[in-house]
Amino acid sequence: MTVAVAPEVRAAQRRIVSTINASGRLNADGLALWREVNCGEWKATAADISRDLDLLQVPHTIVTAFRFPLATSYSKAMREGEEVRILRRDLAHLVPWMPSMERTVADIPEDAPHWDFSVFQPRADGMVIAKLALSAEWPAWSKKQARAARLVCAECDYDLREFKDETRMPFDVRLPERPKARRLVCGQCCNDGVDEMERLAALAGKPS
Ligand SMILES: [Zn+2]
Known about the structure:
The protein has helices at 7-23, 46-55, 100-106, 143-148, 194-203; strands at residues 24-27, 30-36, 61-67, 79-87, 117-123, 126-132, 170-172, 184-186. The protein is an alpha+beta fold. It has two domains: 7-106, Endonuclease I-creI, CATH 3.10.28; 117-203, no CATH class. Strand 5 and strand 6 (126-132) form a beta hairpin. Helix 1 (7-23) crosses helix 2. It is elongated, with a radius of gyration of 21 Å. It starts with 6 loop residues before the first helix and ends in a 5-residue tail after the last helix. The structure holds zinc ion (ZN). Residues 153, 155-156, 158, 185-186, 188-189 line the site of zinc ion. Zinc ion binds next to strand 8.
């Protein structure tokens, strides 16, 4: 059975296929398309992409996601953007519009990285796990870019994206004078956050 496809749907298909080919990032969790905020003058915004995906009936979400600051940029702040994300199990909805996607998904390596970058956050009342709002491409950044994004240990420069050495997991240990600025340190450089937890507990006036 051949189903007639409306012209606006065909147009959405063409845009989505070229957007994915140009800037899609695939990892273990699915496909992500990142757009810097206010990029609309130059290319499709996250909202434009979302509209096209709606036309194609592909389930997706939009999340806030940050990328490392550009070396040429005046500001050292992370670049804020929006990321359109399609869960791996929903990529089947793209296949009718983009047949090559079937192969692409089948070829995702078993050890492919995930979306989330989780860190331990020492608090006065214990350790919590926090997720950083990073663009899905963080595993592919160079060490220099990871350093600009402050994903290396602030003390010893260890690349915290490894997640292989249990003694060097990322902990968010902030400087007392800058309690609002995230500062990642490896487990070896901060005694697995225990010292910081005790310091915060003492500050809060609780017995540790
Ligand atoms: Zn370290």
